[in-house]
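Tutorial sheet, problem 5. The two components below are modelled jointly, 553 residues in total.
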Amino acid sequence: MKHSSCIAAAVFALAALLASCQLASIPTTPANRYALVIGVQDYPTDYKDLQFPDDDARDMADLLSTQGWTVTKRLISTNDLSIATDGSPTYAAIESAVASLSADPNATILVYFSGHGATDSDYTYIVPYDGIVVDPGSNYGSNIAKWITPATLTLWMTAVPAKNRLLILDSCDSGGFVTSDVAVDTAPADYSQMGNTTSDTGLIAAALSKLNTMLAANVTNFGSKEVQVLSASGSEESSYDDDGTLGFSLDNGVFTYFLLQAGEPSSSNSLLLKGDANKDGVVTIDEAYVYAKAQIKLNWNSTNYHKWADMDLLPHISGGTRDVVLYAGS
Amino acid sequence: MNLLDFIVKKKNERRNILRKPATARLALAAAALWTLLALAQATPVSSSPQGLADSSRWRVDLSGNAAAVPSHSFDCNLLAAYGWDLGLGAEYAVTIGIPLRVELDYLNVGDSAWDSSLFRYRGFWGLKFAALSGWRFLLSPVEAEILAGGALTAARYTSLSSVTAYPSIVGELRCLFPFRISNLKFGAILGLPIEYMFRGTARTLSAGLEAGISVQLPEAKKK
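Model answer (structure tokens):
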């Protein structure tokens, strides 16, 4: 046989593979996309109350409802009677609401949380309504048994039948939920400590930092369930409500404000959304992250006051192989 | 039905056949078998003085590769993606084979096609280091190599801050078309590199067409 046979065989094999790999257009938005929206603004003591989580949760639920999601529950603690709520966002209510998000193994589920976050030497937490208690001897008391760790929330979410799982957190230290054995998050835990000049370490240095763990996990994780996490801040970094220093009112948490903005119609083309970087008609969780990060850097971190007060922050996103549509268009 | 309609219908039928992954896998298997049969009838390099590396020599090469890079997972069928890479390689060639070949590649893979649940596999770029070994055959005047080995890749998801490192199994079928410039022996490379990547919840196959150029390092003269 001549060598041309080899070449022909190779070309034929490649052509066969290419023919089987057609990049199809975006499918129709399926009906099985379910979201749970949580906003903890008013805690049992006024001392720990926040300013905008009720607005964050309402606005996020309203936007998701127009972008291909069914909002199954709005767990919002608020004194604002105009904001609809399906109950108080206690530990038990959140656990129950997550468990009942979906019964469909092909579904996509999303959990959004705006409220307090915390960290200690061992764990990162989000703080539900009953994570703070009234303490007569002090301004407030912490009921840490009710604080929710990444492992607990991941356990709850992976127990739900679904194909895709998204978790969005607008809370302090929420980057601590961006944990993975298969990837390294190279964005800094505290942006201000990086001098605001760089956010990423080099490729090789990052890969070598936990090489054995990543190699082992990448081989053995086939068949496991991923939760894609998008966080407002790093694991040692606060997330902020609007403080009125930008000269215009955000009426939301800083991160949520720009995350919502990614799903608004573009000013130059009303058929596209602001966060739709590749103009394909949808905004994925990656695109929303890139948009919110850029806008926070541009509008919030750049102000002298926020730099001076170390109030700058940087959103984080988890590794993993999947990118999921967040805003599917109206 | 007029002639034009008939041609379009036949083309669509053929396209539909090729779109089926099972058909594509069968075609791949047939092509691989065909290639192996061809190589089995070829002449080993050791029996001919016309081989590109007719004695034990190092040679280095520079190549580019365009590839189909589909991924799948336990809950999702193959989703198409495409990528390319640029690579530097060095190999030690002896008469019966290649005891060692090392490669350093810069690679870039785009976002995949969409799953019906509205997810896709993220695009990524990175650096790959591979070590392979294999056999050489003379398909006069062309030299062929069949190589297999393993690789480690450090990759960053495009536009994100997440970095991962994953292992993969690599194989290559390479044809070298020899030519000389001055006293240097060169080879134009046409290859079919294949890689199977272990990427967490996903498994990714890369199969592409490679082109490049190889040069045999001159033997040092003894004093």
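Marking note: Chain B has two helices and twelve strands. Full credit if you identified this.
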